[in-house]
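Holo prediction — pyridoxal-5'-phosphate.
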Amino acid sequence: MVAICSECEAPLAADRPCACGGLPEFRLRSPRMSPHGYKNTLKHRRVSSDPRFRSGVWRYIELLPPIQDSEIVSMAEGNVPLYESAGRGEDFAEVRKLAYLHLGMNPTGSFKDLGMTVAVSAAKASGMRSVACASTGNTAASMAAYAARGGLRSYALVPRNGISREKLAQIRDYGAEVVEVQGSFDDAFARLAELDAVAIVNSVNPYRIEGQKCAAFAMLEARGWCVPDWVVLPGGNLGNVSAIGKGLLEAHALGLIGRLPRIAVIQASGAAPFVHAWEHQVDLVPCVAQTMASAIAIGNPKSWRRARRILKACNGTAISVSDAEIDRAKGVIGLEGIGCEPASASSLAGLRELVRRGIVDGKADVVTILTGHVLKDGAASVRVADLRDVQKARGSHACAI
Ligand SMILES: *Cc1c(COP(=O)(O)O)cnc(C)c1O
Ligand SMILES: [Zn+2]
């Protein structure tokens, strides 16, 4: 299938960027269905026994690039809960209505599964025998699982000191070949160019974006197609904001929703090159990433141009939060009985800051996206719980986490 450049719309092969700096992207083929009819079809698919429709990605098959059914590698991904805040998160952020779309509740514990089912299926359909990625852990864990299911070999390039024990163990559990790279995620990504005859399944792969956009459809479906005022999510390589933004724009174009929510991307302050570019309206200048939230420790995000386009289209914004603020927010999410890995908690930390600055109204109806499972990073949970104990011992109520 032919893709187009996300920026200048020139036709592109699906596996290489454009000379203008844009990335290949698929354009939606308009399904001939009324919005009302399509919503009903989706409802029926939820109770269907067709194995494809047990997936919260393939349920939206008309909105995906065509892939032969026999090549689909799926693990019922995308059926994740939308948890309403029980109060602590709303109080912490000082917002009226808050819900968490928990994409950590996927087969391998992160949102990467939504994209990976499509990317690995497409690689298999095109006759590829191997897939590869650079990863701080979650992309590689997802790739390894789907490659194993699809009978493909997989190669994970990971930063030696930038990955949690749990993620490294999980990648090996599914049988991927792990190459530990000296340096950062960005260094590992650069090394991908040395690989031959493999499909790269990082989010520069347009099939990943097609799968991940389905999180937007699932979120809207779970809300009875009622549009929130804001969607807040973490940004590292900025593939997910591009994907969820694409999904929301398509839902709007198809008449499934009548207006767009605003989107806020949150970066860790030690890895916030996009926030800098957004605030100063300049091109992105890569930085050396430094944050405990390893999943967003990325200094040279590949999808910054399309993230910028998405934020402009929905009147969105981008801000950064410190690691200390991320830890506090993680503690609050834990006390909601939900839990997540640190990068995910940056969304709640960011929401609090957006309300404080008056950018998000305290009366707003907000969905924050939790991107990864609490068990992905045990050291972070211990750190946050210890912090909580120290506060308790001091009798501090000021920031009860
Ligand atoms: C991949 C990942 C992110 C960052 O997503 P991008 O698409 O790189 O912006 C955030 N949180 C978690 C848990 C992730 O796995
Ligand atoms: Zn281009």
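READOUT: Residues 378-393 form the longest helix (16 residues).
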